[in-house]
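Sample A.
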Amino acid sequence: MIKPDLFVHELRVALRSLARTKGLAITVVLTLALGIGANAAIFTLVRGVLLRPLVNRGEERLIYVRQSAPGIGIENTTFSVPEIQDLRASVKTLTAFGDFSTIGFTMVGLGEPREVRAGVVGGSYFEVMGLRPVLGRLLDAHDDGPNAAGAAVLTYRFWTAVLKSDPSVIGKTVRLDTRLATIVGVLEPSVPYPAETEIIANVVTSPHHLSATMVTGRVHRMTELFGRLAPGADLESARAELRAVHGAMIGQYPETYSPKADFRISAVLLRDQITSRARTVLLVLLAASALIFVIACSNVANLILARTVRREGELAVRAALGASTGSLRRTLLADSLLLCAAGATLGVLSARPMVSILARYASRFSVRALDLTVDSSMLWVGALLAVVAAVLLAFVPRLPSAGASNGLNLSTGGLRITGSTGRRLRVFAVTQIAASFVLLAGAGMLIKTLFALQAARTGFDMHQVLALNVPVSSYGRTPDQIQGFYKEAMRQIGALPGVDRVAVGTAVPWRDVGIFGPGFQFSADGHVRAPGEEDPRARFRTVSPGFFAALGIPIISGRDFNDADRHDGEPVVIVSQSVAQRMFPNQDAVNHHMEWTDPVMKFIDVSLAPRRIVGVAADVDDENVVPVPALTVYHPLEQEIGGGRLFVHTRSDPYTLVPPITRIIRDMSVDQPVELPATLEDVRAEVLTPDRLNTLVFGGFAAVALAIAVVGVAGVLAFSVSGRTREFGIRLALGAQPWNLLTTVITEGAVMAGAGVVAGAACGYALARLAGSYFVDMRMPSVIPVAGSALALLTAAVVASMVPAARAASVDVMEALRSD
């Protein structure tokens, strides 16, 4: 057992010893601080996002129910009201269900008029979710039914960030499109799933939710579903019962559930559902930080080993005087503990700002990261890593025995590097390079992906098109008046200096992804389905005349819409090139007819009558950042539902037009929101932000790893050269040329790098295969990132070898021969 006072004495001796080698001590502390700080910060992030309990009461029994149709590529079809009613009536392993539909409202009455994303819920929702108010009350069963008064709850983030935590909002009346609602409460801080919303309102605030099409339409799916496990029931039994009830529904309504679509139902704990998107990213980030720790410890191990070799005279003398192996190991442990404690302290201090930066990064994948707080767990992680590193580093060197000098000439103090020591030095250097290679290859893959995303041609005019959200409310307006509003707005905005064209559309590319779901089934003249085949699906878009010219989309054949395409005129459409080629191969699609065949159309008031194709537009993909051929059908604004998005093509800086455009809209209607002005280029850049952040974070990790590895290789070779001074002097005396020594040392560095690359490739492949069995979206890097990473490491190793190689080549022969 170690006596405390004896170990304190060892620590004092170690402190004095380290004070004589300040450069080495500072290098070791900074390297460890980097490794420990990165791991403490990442662990805090993982704990906060993946492991921290939800605020929902009884979260261990709260589940998320999902319906999917993998046969047609739809991961989440959501549920219709009749489906939810069937599940409620038949499923006994769940005590209650909570429903949530995401919908957009124009809200007037709380400051500036604004477009808000809202959740429309039944009275059981908050009880099922186990949530409480921080102010007022939440919705309950008294708020259900068509005769209930309109009521809404503010989400905590909206209340604090936008309304500045104003308690007087309780009891205020707001207008949500055409309905009035009273603000009855503020929800406690909680994870906003399935969508981040500003308000959560009862069903009566949405006329659509009260309509017969919503209440009776089994194919009209727009509602997310949650449930609570009954006492004694577990998740597996609930899954089994849900599958059985769902199977009976499919058998009872075969016309609603296409065999090709392969409708399925599943259930997961809500916590797992919330963290699913962030889990892969954070665990990969944790693995990357672990590699940084391995690299840092390997580098420090080399430095400690080199220092111990230089202290072997002292250690050998102590062994010869009777010091035990345990005593010598305590000496090394004292050194390591001082260095690691200093490194951990600096690492924990640096981890706090790192957590702040990484939380903003992780918020792109999980909103839980926005509420992340640093607690004492980071201190414990730092302390644990420091102890682990200290113990490992204390047992790296080989100790001298009492009867051996262990390669050190005690009479002269000359330095000798034994084969064992040299091998250990090289093993640690190779370990650094191997770990660095894994990080570099991963970062290279992300960089290559980002370049491909940024270089993808979109088909839109990206620079000069300004997009704005201008959702015209139907409150107090007929459909004709809404169309008149847009026409007048386009006329006035078109007269502004610098404006070329103005148009209205349904969706801002990449921002309004999935605005009409996965698309609707359609058919066309002469189209014959193969046996078992379903009609294809196309995206539904509504645009004004001039939309294609404003966004730079060519009309390949036929014409654009014009003012004659009114609601009382002939139904017409423009189709994308992919639709024309799919439905009318080797023909001109113009003047043929198409029709919607999807049964859901009757629930959103879209006619199933045939429509004449008057034009074919070039393919553009307004949902995927990397475009794919998209089946799209465009309708004239005056003939179908849509609008809400304004597009302005300009000759000058688009952002200078935002104030005059806003004034025009507000002069026409003081209650009209004008929000989210951005060029298409900036909209796309915002969508690419998570990919850029991935590249930046992992690229930063890889750069740090490469820097440490290069220092490690240079250090090993420098130490090797200093221990082989006599050998190099003899070789020069026997006629060897300096460039021979230069080549020898550089070759050693290249060999170490090559061994590290091979080891890294093998370990990386094994890790990727292992991760692939848990994460379906895990991909192997392609040849270019792997080859580039190998070349970067080999080049860096050669460059790092040049300084010690130059020193070896310039050894003074006489001085080298006198060195022993």
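Sample B, a different protein:
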Amino acid sequence: MNSKVKKIRNVLIGIVVTIIALIVIVIIFLSPIAKHLIQKYDTKYLGREITLDWIYINPFTGYAYIRNLKVYEAGGMDTIFIKAKSLSVNFAMLKMLKKTYEIENVTLTEPWGRAIQNHKKFNFNDIIVRFSPKDTIKTVGGPPVHFNILDIKIINGEFHYEELSIPVSYYVKNVNIESTGKRWDNDTMNIKVALQSGPTSGTLNAVLNMDVRTLDYSIDAKINKYQLKFLGQYLRDIANYGVFTADLDGDLHAKGNFAISLAVQAKGWLALNDFHYGKVPGDDYLSFDKLMLNMVDINPRAYSYYIDTIRLDKPYFKYELYDHMDNITALFGKDLTNIKGAVADNTKFNLVVEIGKYINDIIKNFIKSYYKINRIAIYNGNVRFNDFALREQFSIAADPMTLTADSIDKHHRRMNIHFSTGINPYGNINASLSLDPNNYGTFDLTYNIKRIPITLFNPFLISYTSFPLDRGSLDFNGYLNVLDSNIHSDNHLLILDPRVGKRIKAKDTKWIPMPLIMSIVRERSGAIDYDIPIQGSLRSPKFKLAYVIFDIIGNIFTKPPSSPYLFHVQDVEKRVEKFQTLNWETRKISLHTGQERFIEKIAKYLKESPDASITVSPMEYTAKEKEYILFFEAKKKYWMMSRKSKGMNEDDSIYVDKMSIKDSIFVRYLDKLIGDTLMFTIQEKCRHYVGEGIITIQFTQLMTDRQNTFMSFFDGDVRQRVKIKQSETIVPFNGFSYYKIDYNGQLPEKLQNSYDEINDINDEKPRKQYLKARNEIRGSMPEVKPISKTQAK
């Protein structure tokens, strides 16, 4: 090799080494320089402090890598806005020569970020303003500049959201996002998202295709047990108190436009599970196990709804009346002022309000649209009503409740809905509705209410008349035919065997002569039986009460001649009933003279029948007994405190017993003692004042004293043949605790004679004539079947 070749080779080697050295020097020194420049000019250009562990930049390959990146909130380094374990970016360097700026891929590993909202202001508004274009730049000559960002990945992210004005705090974790990115000549982006609820449980997986120019989108989403408890924070903005939980399942396929709310077309299914909303955990106002919506094709923009199934399992709703409001007013304010205020407030974002507005828009659109629903079903519902505004609690519930409707189609002339429910504690309701889906003012409704014990309404009767009822049942049936909002209706009220009990004298009861009124309104059969027609319009119905008035007038003159037979039948029924049950007045241990004579007859029967015995089953109306004990103990404690007394005599006890539980001074004392709490009822306040332990002790003592009173009539060998079973907690049909007595062996002679007389009455011609006449009044009532001696025993 000659010297000239060597010289050229050395020059080339030198150039290569120099280039390599320069590259290495650039790579080595560019990274710390870049780190220095970022941290020096971060506030100037971004308005925020930035820190990082180290940065690697290769300008020749277009690769950049940052480790432990932290961006702080505007105004200092007190709070982190966003951070990431690493950020890597690949630039297509050669494409810059063709004025195409392309990020080939960008990966953000384990990012953590926080968005803070205060009314309509976000903590990143300053960044948006800073990087918003100030002027429109027109390119003069040459090819246009293109920008591509491809292959975007976010790995295991965690993102927090806080709304300060409500306030709300929520976050999602394990956020993984993949996107093919966006090219300059294509407005569509494909994004895959997978995340988990942060504070609770549940997952969301979705594939989103979006046109960034038109804002059209399509989405396929799978939701698994996604907890919605965070919505309870938004509810606090519209409710004075309350606890909310629920989770969401779904498989949804939808397309639409982000700018037009009703421009959506969806299919698939959604299920809202374990929904609970109430005063405190375990005390729900509204709940259900599952609300299932199975959609075939929902298209509000085309005014078309095709739904396969709407199913609601175990819904529960509780409505309560208090002294000065109800639970809905206590929750949302008078006339729902809290909700109205939140809806009217445009200065802050409330997700629950926005969901409510959207549902309202959908409902309005639905009414105007064509719809087809294959099936609607509600199973095992429970709707409860509690009235605490009376002197004692009144409770009734529709449970279990079922509603079904099939083949609901607006093209059909009619859609049919069937409703049935049991009434807790007794009775049932059945109703059928035939509705014109194109005219909601045209429908036919039939309904039937059966066997409601009228003793259930004693809290009302005692408060307004002073007289309870100790027997009777209510039936009500009728129909409602409505054509173009014009009503034609007939209703039949039947109250069988209503009997007025002993008057209760107290300061918080009004007096109405119920025995006299009952003697007038009862028919010859002993029933209250009236037809009540209704006419007019849905907005102004007119009740035709003339029939009722004429019946009452007729009773005054026509009932007396036909009453003796009725009174004889009732007398025999009472004798049978008296030998089988022993009623106890609420919170009392004493017996009236007639009851004492009855027990003495049983004792005599046992003495005369050595092989006979009786079994006594105490049936305790525990809830009502404890309520009476609670009220007495609370008034007693207050009375002794106010008089600084350590004891009470019999007169004092009678005075306290008659004292109104709603006495204004007493209630003010309780309110001041308890303070500002969620105790709305006098029952809750008294229970807090007295203590549950005292009530349990007094109730146990009451049961023992009643047993001792009953057993005091038996002595010697007879006492050994009286077995008292464990008490059973019930809600009795007659509204009173009682002892059920079963005879083992030969029946007492008078009881046997009474059974025989009932059978004779059922068989004899006058009885049949009586039943025939009574059935003509009541409608179709089955004839009483004779009681066999086997059944009697």
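Observation for Sample B: Residues 3-45 form the longest helix (43 residues).
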